[in-house]
Amino acid sequence: MIRRTLTIEVFRFNPQTPDIKPYMETYTVKEVPNMTLFVALNTIREEQDPSLMFDFVCRAAICGSCAMLVNGRPRLACKTLTKTLPSHIKLLPLPVFKLIGDLSVDTGTWFRHLNLKTQAWIHTDKTFDPKAIEERMDNETALKIYEAERCIECGCCVAGCATANIRDDFLGAAGLNKIARFMVDPRDKRSDQNFFEVIGTDEGVFGCMGLMACDDNCPQELPLQMQLAFVRRRMAMTGIFGGK
Ligand code: SF4
Ligand code: SF4
Ligand code: FES
Fold first, then answer.
1. Whose CA is nearest to atom 2 of ligand 1?
2. Considering its fold, how many domains does the chain have in total?
3. 131 and 65 part of one domain
4. Ligand 1 centroid distance, CA of 37 (Å)
């Protein structure tokens, strides 16, 4: 079998050395069977250029660290097989997030802000009793919560979102998915009016243009289109009729 030689063009810039302007650097790597983009980048870093910056932790599409633009599309490097790509690959850091260097961006600060802004925790008056038997929940509700909780905060949906690219206060599909998660949770006592105060603006649900790049780009295949429609419907009702 003839193995391809991959040409990998990588964005290079280190904010610590701003005098060196951003540029694209080209590396070549011999493709091996079932090679992921992460493996290709790691090979480059180990054998050709230890200064190359990119993030990874799990290498199994769980931690969300390795997202980057792969030939213009937000993808997880550890989940992307090079055989699914042409032999010329162009890699850029995710837009929207603060650049740390080369392909590494700070999604953590962005998601922390998101979690604080959406108050992503269960709001209840009950005092937690560690000895009490866990409250039961019907399967259908538990599955809806589980589905929304599968988000790994990789930022692919945000990077591909036109609104998030033009306004830095937009919560994006990841934020609206998070709100949907708490809306369906019977333990959370927030009313729709309370949620409306957080997301019933152009920063939230009404800033969404509905073109669904988020849904196309989510590596976890979360049903973002459905979640956005659900939140939008609930918020439209609340806005018009003044809450439940
Ligand atoms: S549908 Fe809304 S949240 Fe999704 S990418 Fe488009 S504007 Fe962004
Ligand atoms: S919704 Fe999907 S694309 Fe967006 S941050 Fe979560 S896992 Fe990543
Ligand atoms: S390294 Fe964890 S998602 Fe890719």
1. 208
2. 2
3. no
4. 26
Per-residue pLDDT tens digits for 57-79: 999 999 999 999 999 999 999 99
Among 53, 76, 105, residue at a domain's last position: 105
Residue 88 forms beta bridges with which residues? 7
In the chain, the DSSP E strands lie at 5-12, 23-30, 67-70, 73-76, 88-92, 98-101, 104-106
CATH number at residue 61: 3.10.20.30
List residues bridging with 7 in a β-sheet: 28, 88
Give the domain extent around 234.
118-241
Residue 113 lies in a domain: no
Return mean pLDDT, the chain. Answer: 94
The answer to whether the CB of 154 is under 6 A from ligand 2 is yes
Contact 64, 39 (CB under 8 A): no
Ligand showing the shortest atom-to-Cα distance for residue 212: 1
| pLDDT tens-digit readout, 105-153 | 999 999 999 999 999 999 999 998 999 998 899 999 999 999 999 999 9
Tell me the per-residue pLDDT of 177-215, one tens digit each, with 9 for 90 and over: 999 999 999 999 999 999 999 999 999 999 999 989 999
Looking at the structure, do residues 179 and 212 belong to the same domain, yes or no?
A: yes
3-class secondary-structure state, position 30: strand
Does residue 112 form part of some domain? no
Q: Ligand 3 within 6 A of 62 CB?
A: yes
